[in-house]
Write a structure and sequence with these properties.
6-stranded mixed β-sheet; Aminopeptidase; 18 strands; 497 residues; binds ligand BES; 9-stranded mixed β-sheet; 14 helices; binds manganese (II) ion; alpha/beta; Leucine Aminopeptidase, subunit E, domain 1; binds zinc ion
């Protein structure tokens, strides 16, 4: 069941709800909503500030149960940190933390006044959008592969949240609901195990989405026979080791006029990356089910764009394969002929993402002549070393396109950071046996991977997002994050004007 959101503006002390959320900064500075609750409840919040029970520290929260003088059953007092340094990232963080705390309480509905907290440089529509996305993110539960729970009575679960905001924020709510659907789709797809979410499964999900839309949306799936006829020699080599046959999934949305070139999103869809013959070490290999995070991300952004009804044309292309060792698997030293005609010497079968993306990028450019082409891929461990899990790596030769994407990431807090794509790095890809090698050696691994892709995007307005560090949360229970759905959707919204 999806969480319901609405906007409302009743006073916090008289609103009828299972839980009201109000914010308190450090050093006992109350927000106006907290002050109203405090007044009505005879100074209850201020007394707890004085006693030290309420610190105001970022992410902390204190539950007041059935306080006298107010209508709501509970008040969750949420710490906002220091007031003078309060910013957009903090606004998002306190919503994530508050929603996590709320999710542990037996409440079905809540009213949040945290969306009223001023953020320098951001308007109320931004605040509502960011709040809804953060709360929906925290409320997401992965349940698909657990034994179905017995129908015994359970404590109530959060089902609806009202946010304090005026009508001017309605647009922010509408945007958030569209983006949240894309994010949830991406997370669920990426969280599914690879014995379920294989290339055929991804194709079926895309097809099912398209079938449920009007005729502005269509889906086409190329199988290995069709790709073979077209000459996808690089992609098909990667796929050869798996019984799960590869697919090229193509979604089209016609929201703009017929003569307008589309924008193109291309996502790496490796449903499991064992490394192939260049087998990965055992520990951590299970995380390579998330190696289709780029595919999930571009599909999620596509869904959000359709839901928003953006006035532009969009194509979403997902090359999807499984990378496995096998008697028929491709091997180090193989020379492949890509769709572009360029030959590739395979020096490591674990550098497979670029090998499926190069053919997908070539095909997308040839088929659609897009206005701009963005790929998203969990491409390199090197990007995780360089940027960690907070920023996606952005590489492009087009400064204007890079600036657009960085701005979209900054605005939505789904942030990217640029790495250079200078020709100086291209020499690392030289091969004695083919036009290009598929790895570039020890240094600058994220950049040489992008350099490899750049050889297949000549003449295109193209940017590459390496989401290896951002697509999922690490750890045994780490879930897919849905990044970069929000960044890409914002970029598309900005393009649609
Ligand atoms: N899917 C991996 C990249 C990856 C690794 C993403 C760890 C997230 C966490 C990719 O296919 C890969 O294996 N890349 C190799 C490239 C190397 C062989 C040049 C890598 O990063 O080690
Ligand atoms: Mn790999
Ligand atoms: Zn991979």
């Amino acid at each position: 069941m999806t969480l319901q959101f609405s906007l409302g503006a009743a006073a916090p002390e008289t609103v009828d709800s299972a839980c009201v959320l109000v914010g308190v900064y450090e050093h006992g500075v109350l927000t106006s909503a907290a002050a109203r609750v405090d007044n009505a409840a005879g100074g209850l919040i201020k007394r707890q500030v004085e006693s030290g029970d309420i610190s105001g520290k970022t992410g902390s929260s204190t539950l007041l149960f059935a306080p006298q003088g107010i209508t709501a059953r509970r008040v969750l007092v949420v710490g906002l940190g220091a007031q003078k340094s309060f910013d957009a990232a903090r606004f998002q963080k306190i919503h994530l933390e508050a929603a996590r705390a709320l999710g542990k309480l037996p409440v079905a509905d809540a009213v949040s006044y945290l969306s009223e907290v001023e953020v320098p440089g951001r308007d109320s529509a931004w605040r509502v959008r960011t709040a809804v996305l953060a709360i929906d993110h925290a409320a997401y539960r992965y349940t698909a592969t657990f034994k179905p729970r017995d129908k015994q009575p359970k404590p109530p679960e959060l089902a609806s949240v009202a946010l304090a905001a005026g009508d001017e924020a309605q647009a922010g709510l509408a945007q958030a609901l569209a983006i949240a659907e894309g994010v949830r789709f991406a997370r669920e797809l990426a969280n599914l195990p690879p014995n379920i979410c294989n290339p055929a499964w991804i194709a079926a999900q895309a097809q099912a989405f398209a079938d449920a839309q009007d005729d502005k949306v269509s889906c086409q799936v190329l199988d290995h026979v069709e790709m073979d006829k077209l000459g996808f020699g690089s992609l098909l080599a990667v796929a050869r080791g798996s019984v799960n046959k590869p697919k090229l999934v193509v979604l089209q949305y016609r929201g703009g006029s017929a003569d307008e070139k589309p924008y193109a999103l291309v996502g790496k869809g490796v449903t499991f990356d064992s490394g192939g013959i260049s087998l990965k070490p055992g520990p951590g290999m299970e995380e390579m089910k998330f190696d289709m995070g780029g595919a999930a991300g571009v599909l999620g952004a596509f869904i959000a764009a359709v839901r928003l009804g953006l006035a532009l044309n969009l194509v979403c292309v997902v090359p999807t394969v499984e990378n496995m060792p096998d008697g028929d698997a491709y091997r180090p030293s193989d020379v492949l002929t890509s769709l572009s005609g360029l030959t590739i010497e395979v020096l490591n079968t674990d550098a497979e993402g670029r090998l499926i993306l190069c053919d997908a990028l070539t095909w997308t450019a040839q088929t659609f002549q897009p206005q701009a082409m963005i790929d998203a891929a969990t491409l390199t461990g090197a990007c995780v070393i360089a940027l960690g899990k907070h920023a996606s790596g952005l590489m492009s030769k087009h400064d204007d396109l890079a600036a657009e994407l960085l701005a979209a990431g900054e605005h939505t807090l789904d942030r990217a950071w640029r790495l250079p794509l200078w020709d100086d790095y291209q020499a690392q890809l030289e091969s004695g046996f083919a036009d290009v090698a598929n790895i570039g050696g020890k240094s600058a691994g994220a950049i040489t991977a992008a350099c490899f892709l750049s050889r297949f995007t000549d003449g295109q307005r193209w940017a590459h997002l390496d989401i290896a560090g951002t697509a999922w949360d690490e750890g045994r229970k780490g879930l897919a994050t849905g990044r970069p759905v929000t960044l890409l959707t914002q970029w598309l919204m900005d393009r649609a004007g």
